[in-house]
Automatic annotation (TrEMBL):
Annotated signal sequence range: 1-24
Listed Basic and acidic residues bias regions: 265-276
Species this chain originates from: Trichinella patagoniensis
Domain Prolyl 4-hydroxylase alpha subunit: 339-462
Keyword terms of this UniProt record: Dioxygenase, Iron, Metal-binding, Oxidoreductase, Signal, Vitamin C
Pfam families linked to this entry: P4Ha_N, TPR_P4H
Record has Ubl conjugation as a keyword: no
Protein name: Prolyl 4-hydroxylase subunit alpha-1
Cofactor(s), names only, from the UniProt record: L-ascorbate
InterPro entries listed in its UniProt record: P4H_N (IPR013547), P4HA-like (IPR045054), Pro_4_hyd_alph (IPR006620), TPR-like_helical_dom_sf (IPR011990), TPR_P4H (IPR059068)
GO molecular function: iron ion binding; L-ascorbic acid binding; procollagen-proline 4-dioxygenase activity
SMART domains: P4Hc
Length: 463
């Protein structure tokens, strides 16, 4: 979700769907994916100029150039419409392919005749609003995909097929792509997702005409994940397969003996028939740092409907308690009472949203959180987004929105904080938290304005 936030001492405004221009991590901001597509077109032009100078030697670079050109067309079509990438698998594939392709481009150009091209590309990326995707971006996108998978309980195979909740509108992932996601999970000691994605990689590599990854490598990830998830017999089975596809594998024999010893300390090898084994278990571990995880993920899936007895107490009305509102009343819908949640309808226009986007775009930076122990602002894995801040004095639209919140909430804006704009990337999120300061935090009221007492959110669709 792409968001724009306005944290206030009295209220917080949250808007979505900003189209920012910002340096930094690609994975933290959805809008950067679109800019990567544009960068792909620019890279294509640079490569084409070089290819003209050395046609025969650079046939492979021509192919890469065509791939760069195709990225934006695949997403936006031949007419170059401004459709935004909605499918997270598509976004992951684009970032990963661009990252892989540029590494390959560099290898092809390690000659003197390529120095000019490299210089041109370096100059272009240095002056560009977005840099080429890095390993950090691929990791960030993979983590985002796994978070989306968990929150919405998506099937691994469907995701690899580019299908999200029954809608097929993304590219398919290769076995190598799937194993990259498994590798990211493995490096984070997340063997639940390691097993899901390594198993999908194994299914795919067996069907690929030209395998994109070594079979033994895939099997080793599966075997170890099976072991870590308590499926010792399945670990033995997959390690045995490693020895079949690669008899000289350097770790297979040692691992196989280790797993067999776990089943029989006397070291007697046991023949494993996978057809007679119960299905492997793969339990998603609890996250002790987020005790509310299951509840908030269920809310995202709309699994907690309002009981009928509470729904009967909800209603809509026109807010007319201020002179200005006599002429232009605000549409209000009471959504929930404890805590009180109110839906204000039609309180921001497309034109105002466009102005906010334009103002905020050049200012977006990686969002930070307040460390309750140190009192300092810092980046955190539980808040993945980019944000910017706007003052009322920067534009009449900002001031107009501030005045409107005053009328919506009947709360003074004199102690309000600046307008915060947040743009979330693939799987971007902010873990469950309180907007107000809580006991034990360092200097929560250093500005002398008191605690936050309400939050106003404006969600604006990115597509």
């Amino acid at each position: 979700m792409l968001n724009m936030i306005w944290p206030l001492t009295t209220a917080t405004l949250l808007l979505g769907a900003i189209t920012p221009f910002s340096r930094g991590e690609v994975f933290t901001s959805m809008a950067n994916i679109d800019m990567l597509l544009q960068m792909g077109e620019d890279v294509s032009r640079i490569i084409d100029n070089y290819v003209e100078e050395d046609e025969r030697r650079l046939e492979q670079l021509k192919k890469l150039s065509a791939e760069y050109k195709s990225h934006k067309v695949q997403v936006h079509g031949q007419e170059g419409t401004d459709n935004v990438i909605v499918n997270p698998v598509e976004s992951f594939a684009i970032v990963k392919q661009l990252a892989d392709n540029w590494r390959y481009v560099e290898q092809l150009m390690k000659t003197n005749s390529a120095e000019k091209l490299i210089q041109n590309f370096t100059h272009h990326t240095h002056n560009s609003v977005v840099r080429p995707p890095s390993e950090e971006d691929v990791i960030g996108m993979a983590v985002g995909l796994m978070r989306i998978q968990d929150v919405y309980k998506l099937d691994t195979h469907d995701m690899a097929e580019g299908k999200i909740r029954g809608v097929l509108d993304g590219r398919k992932l290769t076995a190598y792509d799937c194993l990259e996601i498994a590798r990211v999970a493995y490096n984070k000691q997340d063997f639940y997702h390691t097993l899901l994605w390594a198993t999908e990689a194994w299914d795919r590599v067996q069907k690929e005409d030209e395998p994109t990854i070594d079979e033994a490598t895939v099997l080793e990830y599966i075997a170890f994940a099976m072991f870590k998830q308590g499926n010792i017999e399945w670990a033995i089975h997959y390690t045995t397969l490693i020895k079949q596809v690669d008899p000289n594998h350097p770790r297979a024999s040692g691992n196989l003996k280790y797993y067999q010893d776990l089943l029989d300390p006397e070291g007697k090898p046991r023949k494993i028939d996978p057809k007679k084994l119960p299905p492997p278990t793969n339990r998603r571990p609890d996250d002790l740092s987020i005790p509310e995880r299951d509840v908030y993920e269920g809310l995202c899936r709309s699994e907690y409907p309002i009981p009928d007895k509470d729904r009967a107490k909800l209603y809509c009305y026109y807010k007319r308690n201020r002179p200005y509102l006599k002429l232009a009343p605000i549409k209000v819908e009471v959504m929930h009472w404890k805590p009180k949640i109110v839906y204000f309808r039609g309180v921001i226009s497309d034109e105002e949203i466009a102005v906010i986007k334009q103002l905020a775009s050049p200012l977006l930076k990686r969002a930070t959180v307040h460390n309750a122990d140190t009192g300092q602002l810092e980046t955190a894995s539980y808040r993945i987004s980019k944000s910017a801040w706007l003052k009322d004095t920067e534009h009449e639209v900002v001031k107009r929105i501030s005045d409107r919140i005053d009328m919506m909430t009947d709360l003074t804006m004199e102690t309000a904080e600046l307008l915060q704009i947040a743009n979330y990337g693939i799987g971007g999120h902010y873990d469950p938290h309180f907007d107000m300061s809580t006991r034990g935090e360092s200097d929560p009221y250093e500005e002398g304005t008191g605690n936050r007492i309400a939050t106003v959110l404006f969600y604006v669709s990115h597509y």
